[in-house]
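so my prof wants the structure for this chain in the tokens format not the other one, which i didnt know existed until like an hour ago. anyway here's the sequence
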Amino acid sequence: MRRLAFVASIIGAIMSMDSNGAAAADPEDTLYMDLASGRVTIELRSDLAPKHVARIKELARQGFYDGVVFHRVIEGFMAQSGDPTGTGRGGSGQNLDAEFSDANYGRGTLGMARAQSPNSADSQFFICFKDCSFLNGQYTVWGQVTDGMELVDGIKRGEPPQDPDQIVKMQVAADAQ
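here's what i got, hopefully its the right format
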């Protein structure tokens, strides 16, 4: 009986791997951000920021981010989006309490933008182009780009950029068609 349980657990582990032998991502903890240039895949970090991840997923499922521009894109730093007005002053109208962690802001890390108050994050977020460890512990980490970072690198720079790039569609992978 133990041998059968062992074999079943091995088969289950193999079935949860992708074609490269890595653990397959949970579709409920994966976000697709479609840009005009292609798809960016984001691993959601509910282990670090459960309330932020839940809110990002809620907004994505409402179509909130679809068509929203990258309104602040700084070379060597980050690309910021999530403001439906495209000005950097808008949001969804629901602030979130900070969920700071010791996670490192490395290349491809997604964090919540906020005002001076730590509990002022709303819907705006940024994606780091390179190591930004000077942000560690000051902004909520909620995701990590796992595929398509070269597409993020191609987002037009500026504050605001001329003819800014936009999020065509953002969706939870479990909902993707």
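also thought this was worth mentioning. Helices lie at 2-15, 50-61, 149-153.
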